[in-house]
Structures are given as structure tokens and as C-alpha cells.
Amino acid sequence: MTVFALATSTSHGFSKTPVPSFTLIAGLGIQGDCHSGEHVQHRSHLHIQPPPPNLRQVHLIPREILDAVNLQPGQIGENITTAGLDLLAMGTGTRLRFVPGEGSEEDSKPQPVVVLQGVRNPCPQIYKFRPGLRERFIIRDAEGKIAARTAGVRATVEVSGVVSEGMKVVVESPAEFRALQCV
Questions:
Q1: Listed residue (114, 65, 64, 119) closest to 94, CA to CA
Q2: Fewer CB within 10 Å, N side or C side of the chain?
Q3: pLDDT for 49-103, tens place per residue?
Q4: pTM recorded for the entire structure
Q5: Domain that holds residue 114
Q6: Is 79 within a domain?
Q7: Is residue 179 part of a domain?
Q8: For residue 118, what pLDDT band results from cuts at 50, 70 and 90?
Q9: Predicted confidence (pLDDT) per residue in 1-44, tens digit
Q10: Does 50 sit behind a cis peptide bond, omega within 30 degrees of 0 on the bond before it?
């Protein structure tokens, strides 16, 4: 269970640029990322008054999901690509602690923590990026209704710190399981 890749962007484009590390800021998100802020920063939500809290500070997705649809990290706007971690099976309030490898210079610094808030609703931009791709992130029941979404999860930052590729991810489950809903 590791951090496979990281990506960020200062502008509201769709894809994000791969980076080897970035800094999480508690209550805000990723330092310098266009979605960082106390209130939601997604362009489609900026008109809402009063502005809702930003539950979308960090977007995480398993590498395994990207591989299944032939995508590279950062291409659909995610910030953290994990490996060996079933993010979609986790509940609301699950804490993910990023731990450096033994002997790392980061060993003595605070361990950053994000808290899962919900799943990403595959937006129309995914279809614009690659026609047909949006449906690959939606699971439908026998009646054609949406039963699940697989475009990753959204999280807020609880503890500030640096996250780097290759860090271990420690999962801390909440006392009571509540399934992730769209945020």
C-alpha cells in the first residue's frame, strides 16, 4: 500500500502535471493546487452561496483503476495515485496516513493525513477527455441505474506535511463504517 504517483496543477485545466512530491496543508489541500481552499474550488460550484466547505481538497485513485482504462497518473485530474489500496471499499472518515520509508529524511517530520469524504462523480470532462471513458467509471444495475462510481475518492487534509512518491499508506478505519457517497 503505497503512493505510486502524484500530480498537481495551478490552473483549472483537466489533467494535472506529475510531480515527485507536494505539501498538504491542513484544512486547505495541496499547496499551490487550483483546488486548494477552505471552500469548494471546482468551477461548477463557485456560484453557490454561501460557498460550501471544500470536501474535494485531494483526489485519490488506485493505480489499478487507471491501468484498467489505460490511463496514466494525473490524466483525469487526480492528485494521488495509490498502489495496492482499495480506496472505494473504504468508508467515510477513513484516515490515510502517509509514512516515509525507514531511514528517510522525512522520518522525523509530521506524517501527513487525509480523511476520506466521498467518491468522485465522473464528470462530463472525462467524456471530453476521451469519448466513452466516463461510462467506464460507472457501474449500473440491471435496470440501468447507477449502482457505483469508480473514478476515485475525495479527501480533506487533516495533518499538514510532505507527501512523496513511494511513501507507505497506513489506513485508519473509523469506529463505524459509512459507505462513501458522491461529494
A1: 114
A2: N
A3: 777 777 889 999 999 999 999 999 999 999 999 999 999 999 999 999 999 876 5
A4: 0.88
A5: 2-172
A6: yes
A7: no
A8: very high
A9: 999 999 999 887 788 999 999 999 999 999 998 788 876 766 55
A10: yes
CA quadruple 153, 96, 91, 53: dihedral sign: negative
Specify the CATH number for the domain of residue 87: 2.40.33.20
The answer to whether residue 182 sits within a structural domain is no
CA distance 113 to 155: 10
- Amino acid 15 reads S
Residue of 84, 69, 76 whose CA lies nearest to 16: 76
Strands 146-149 vs 138-140: parallel, antiparallel or unpaired:
antiparallel
Q: Is 81 exposed, middle or buried (0-12, 13-18, 19+ CB in 10 A)?
A: buried
